[in-house]
Amino acid sequence: KNLRRPDGLQPDDPMASYLADPAAFSAGGSRQVKALAGRRSLDRCEWLRLHVASGAAGYSEDHVRSGCADTVIDTQDVRIIMLDSNHPAGYCEGSLGAAQLAWLEDRLTEVDARRGRLAIIASHHGSLSLSNTHGNDPERKHAAELTAILHRHGCVLAWLVGHRHLHRIAAHPGPSGGFWEITTGSVIDWPSQLRAVEVLRHDDGQIELVCTLLDHDAPAHSLAHLHRELALRFAGNVAVNMQGTAGDGNVGLLRP
Length: 256
Description:
Blueprint lengths: L13 H7 L23 H10 L7 H6 L4 E4 L3 E6 L12 E2 H15 L5 E6 L16 E2 L1 H8 L5 E6 L6 E5 L6 E5 L9 E9 L5 E9 L7 H13 L3 H5 L7 E5 L1
Parallel strand pairs: 2-4, 4-6, 6-8
Antiparallel strand pairs: 1-2, 3-5, 7-8, 9-10, 10-11
Helix pairs in contact: 4-5
């Protein structure tokens, strides 16, 4: 367990420097930590295998064999398309592969072919964090390429994202009607909430997304209840920014 950075190590971009030379960060003070047999890293294929074994929607043995985490969940009226936006070369920001975007375009074309059917995209990284250029791989694409595809398909209603640990809802108007980008905070940080997203079709044909923030139902004085209080203290002055404005929380979002 590293306890402090080595003397003289003051990189301008610590994470980029760590990716370039991890050993350089391990030369400071340290202590030994006993390994626990049940605590270890997982690779993508094992992550997929465990999801298949647990009956997770959208995943099958084909995903385990291919190692591909992109998938589709088809409900009665809405197709949910999940994209793996992790960058192969590391770093906290994300990217998408050219093959992923081609696959996405095909899946959205299928939705467009069925009149009245809708699509929702889900990925960890959003428009402000699909920006990873580490490794300079020309096959890795970013937010502009993704949003260009989404704007070509009138079926796209929303893009659900995380990563930034804050609540934020942004409109992306476009020639096919546009879509909403809905960012939800993390339960580990303030305001420690989830978000329910419901799709309603009104009698006049208008589509509404009803977004509702949900607190965990932890008993008073429990560890989970204490965590929420500690999360607020840890957030400090940025707590207001993390919880967003009224328009980023419990809202109804309309699209013609």
